[in-house]
Amino acid sequence: MDTEQSLFQWQRVRRFNLPIWIVLVGVLVTRTSYFMAWPFLIVFLYQDYGVSAIDVGSMLAISALIASLTGLYSGYLSDKFGRRLVMAIGSCIAAVAFGGIGFASEVWQFYLLVVLSGLMRPMIEAPSKAVISDNLADVKDRELALNIRYFVINVGGAVGPLLGVTLALDNPQILFFFTGIAFIIYLFLILFGIERKGGYCRLDTSSLPNFRAAMKVIAQDRIFLLLLIANFLMMFIYAQIESSLPQVIVRENPEVAAKIIASLVLVNTLTIVIFQFPMLKWLERVPLFSRTRIGMALMAVAQIGFMLTPADYPIGWAIACFVISLGEVIAFPTLNVQIDRLAPPHLRGSYFGAAALYSLGFAAGPWIGGIMIEKFNSNWLFLLCLAMSLLMIWLYWRAEHRQKGLKREERREVESKAFQ
């Protein structure tokens, strides 16, 4: 392979300008503080305030729903008014939401603030991805930057809970106060370095359609819609690791459930942090769509592992979790890369915002998974996830062939004009 086309080149990192570094540093700081506090939310709501599992689930589900729906409009607003404004407002909302959780003392306050936290997420994430795309002309540079962004998110996911346990085991609620401070720091970084002269050229918004027209453009992008459906299914499957799988283990092996669940979280986190870039290097020659299907195939194999693992065999759970985590390492970072390549430059924020709809799968996953565990055998849930994995692979195959067909049509059009 031509070394100039290789993803792993130091000069690619050297082309990262100030706005990109602000996004990467901001993601690391805010995600570390977020994961430092968020895992303890359910614990102190139950222990200190007696909030039921149904109420906690409804809080998280509504928050995820608001995040998905808000993404549609916040991404468009970042195209129209600039990334900095929308990201700054989102950071202010995040500071209020998480800082407020640190001081809240009534259940209704927690409900309001947890839901509010869903509002801020797409206002920060969709424009921040667009900032990376805006500031790098080379497609490989953008792919590397988006992969680094995904990596630092997972570093935060690995370091944050350890810091949380170390700093505030007796009073975890106070950790949310520090999370609010982290978003205030990110706010100042955004105001200082995003869209400043010399680092970023504002896109011409004169050609930007209104919101309805922009959504119509996205709705007519059949390749994007196929990916959106597939990624919704992927989020549904992945949600089972954090929600349904612990419930299965607790029901089948309550004596050592806590140790098994903690070990699976460790396996998932370490797999992502250790294997992301080696797997990316190994699969660098593999086309993006094929690479994603490999990750989805590993997710399918993991479902078979979950179905075949006896309740008293924790090593089996760990192996299956390792396999699905490898699938995540391969498939997840490609999602933003594919959207980056599909989106027209003047609609990047809108595309990244609309892509937030696939996170509805993360909201539906715990709800449907819980129903299936309660009403049926857990193997029926894993069988459903296996079927979804195969459907994802087919959807990505369809999207790839549709894209190749469009490219052939474009070539025929160019050739026909050449002979006119």
What does this structure look like?
The protein is an all-alpha fold and 420 residues long. The chain is 81% helix and 0% strand. It has 17 helices and no strands. It has helices at residues 10-14, 18-37, 41-49, 53-81, 83-103, 107-135, 139-168, 175-193, 211-219, 222-242, 244-252, 257-282, 288-308, 314-342, 348-354, 360-375, 378-418.
Based on Cα principal axes, name the global outline: globular
- Low-confidence segments: 197-201, 411-420
- Number of helical segments with 4 or more residues: 17
Query: Biggest β-sheet: count, sense, barrel?
Result: none
Question: Which percent bin holds the helix content?
Answer: over 70%
Content of β-strand: under 5%
- Counting helices, strands and paired strands, the structural category is mainly alpha
Radius of gyration: 22 Å
Question: How do the helices and strands follow one another from N- to C-terminus?
Answer: HHHHHHHHHHHHHHHHH
Please tell me the overall pLDDT: 84
* Structure summary, number of beta strands: 0
Taking the alpha carbons of the first and last residues, their distance comes to: 37 Å
Short overview:
With 420 residues, the chain is mainly α. 81% of the residues lie in helices and 0% in strands.
List keywords for this structure.
420 residues; mainly alpha; 17 helices
Set out the fold topology:
Layout: H1 10-14, H2 18-37, H3 41-49, H4 53-81, H5 83-103, H6 107-135, H7 139-168, H8 175-193, H9 211-219, H10 222-242, H11 244-252, H12 257-282, H13 288-308, H14 314-342, H15 348-354, H16 360-375, H17 378-418
Helix pairs in contact: 2-7, 2-8, 4-5, 4-6, 4-15, 4-16, 5-6, 5-8, 6-15, 7-12, 7-14, 10-14, 10-16, 10-17, 11-12, 12-14, 13-14, 13-17
